User: Fold this.
Amino acid sequence: MKLPTPLSAALLGLATFVTVQAASPWSVRLAPAYLQTVDSTSNNVNVATEDKFIPEFDVNYAFNSHWSVELMLTVPQEHNVKVNGTPAGDFKELPPSLFAKYSFTPVGGFTPYIGAGVNYTIIFDTELGGAKLDTYSVGPAVLVGCDYKINARWSLTAEVKKIQLRTDVTTALGAKVTEARLDPWLYSLGVCYQF
Assistant:
């Protein structure tokens, strides 16, 4: 049996290291996302919340080729609000979401996936002429998307998310006016980097 030389052993170790590095379970995704709220209420009050583009940053950890978890992050967002077409003020929110994802078998360079999870939205700096909102909202969230692999590290991605975001609207004295059902859709196109 021929023993490996020190040089061949070193090259084998380097190849193993590179292989391990290439198989990292971590990836990140950066995308502009268009946030479109549904704007319904529990008693048909005509409330319209500003739709807007927001930056989206996702961190993904893959357990295997099919199952992974994704944490969706962004920066605090400010939304203008209208009631019956008249400006009523604004509020800020921060909506991190955590998803469990299932990726289907790739077709060519395309890998479709679906996911479900939970959203926790923090609501703050409410300026609505004395009306108040809940300080947070917890609700289910779902997603569907597709990656297109460019090379071993980079992919193009397209994704649609649906989030349940609801908050009671109350007067300064605490009387409930309505439940705002914003339930936004998020549409995004971005890039993904595999570590």
Q: What stands out?
A: Helices lie at 6-22.
